[in-house]
Write a structure and sequence with these properties.
Strand order of the largest sheet: 6-11-10-9-8-7
Radius of gyration: 23 Å
Number of helices: 11
Length: about 280
């Protein structure tokens, strides 16, 4: 998901933003021959994500920095664990420290939050998936983090899938009009998803042959009725009011997918640090 050329370009821009015309603190405190050793540690339990991104930050700055990781992406770690050792020119380690931490802290936070949701679903068939409520220009990293955390992915962008939401229905005049018009125009490779607020809309979406039916902000009881009505004729997605307290009950209704912006938008930045030995 995160090709090296894409990640490198993103990281270079992040370094340009942070370093500007030069790191005036580090430039005047170090010289090219100074060496240092430090380690990446965690002050909380979590799931690692962003190992290669962390390494790439320092690779861009210097080919003399060596990094040894003790965990891989997707591994759980405990508070106090030593995640990686970093050795090399002090100038470039200090210069890249903040950018490298920004990536790995944010990505590990999302992976950790996603794992909590999927663990809450447990053995049930439902999959927790993300949404398009992501940080502008950081979507690829956030979606990668969801995947590493054990979640699944919704559409990556607007060109992946035709999703008819309430405003589309109002504009088209009806749900049926919207589906029929899209069916004539889109590629055979694209699915059509319809956002439904009630059981009447679900019935109409079924009659139109929608591929995916989203049950939007419905009660658990209404979800059960809709799942029974759909009866395998379409993929069933539940959305709205999804949190760690509700996700298990929603999964028990028999839906296939549970989408939530919370696994990304409300994921805390994980408390990781870089300490000199």
């Amino acid at each position: 998901m995160l090709s090296k050329f894409y990640a490198e370009e993103h990281i270079k821009k992040a370094l340009e933003e942070d370093i500007g015309f030069g790191d005036i603190t580090t430039e005047y405190l170090t010289n090219e021959t100074d060496k240092m050793s430090c380690f990446l540690n965690t002050r909380v339990d979590g799931v690692l994500c962003g190992k290669e991104i962390f390494k790439t930050v320092f690779e861009i700055l210097s080919d003399k920095i060596e990094i040894k990781f003790y965990f891989d992406d997707g591994d759980k770690f405990k508070k106090g664990d030593r995640i990686a050792d970093i050795t090399g020119p002090a100038k470039y380690i200090l210069m890249g420290e903040r950018v490298a931490l920004n990536y790995v802290q944010r990505m590990s936070g999302i992976a950790t939050e996603t794992r909590k949701y999927q663990d809450a679903i447990g053995e049930l068939k439902a999959k927790i998936v993300d949404t398009r409520k992501t940080t502008p220009l950081f979507r690829a990293f956030e979606k990668y983090s969801v995947k590493i955390g054990g979640g699944s992915l919704h559409r990556f962008n607007l060109s992946d899938c035709a999703m008819i939401k309430d405003n589309h229905i109002k504009y088209a005049g009806s749900l049926t009009n919207a589906v029929n018009k899209l069916r004539k125009e889109i590629s055979h490779a694209h699915k059509i998803e319809v956002e439904c607020d009630n059981i009447e809309q679900v019935s109409e979406a079924l009659d139109c042959g929608a591929d995916i039916i989203m049950l939007d902000n419905m009660s658990v009881e209404d979800m059960k009725k809709c799942v029974a009505l759909i009866n395998g004729k379409a993929i069933v997605e539940a959305s709205g009011n999804v949190n760690l307290d509700t996700v298990r009950r929603i999964a028990e209704t028999g839906v296939d997918i549970i989408s939530s912006s919370a696994i990304v938008a409300k994921a805390p930045t994980l408390d990781l640090g870089l300490d000199i030995l």
